[in-house]
Amino acid sequence: MAKILSVIGARPQFVKASVVSRFIAKKNDLTEVLIHTGQHFDNTIGCRVGT
Prior knowledge:
This protein has 51 residues and is α+β, with helices and mostly antiparallel strands. The protein has one domain. It has two helices and two strands. The N and C termini lie far apart (24 Å).
């Protein structure tokens, strides 16, 4: 199984990455690992990511 690493730093990147993440989620042979760098950290977003 292949792993894809997605590195996201700012709020607009979450919106853009969501399209890719949904595609990866539909594939049985792919797994995504998401890393949030904390750039422009916002508790509103931080609380929702990974829950």
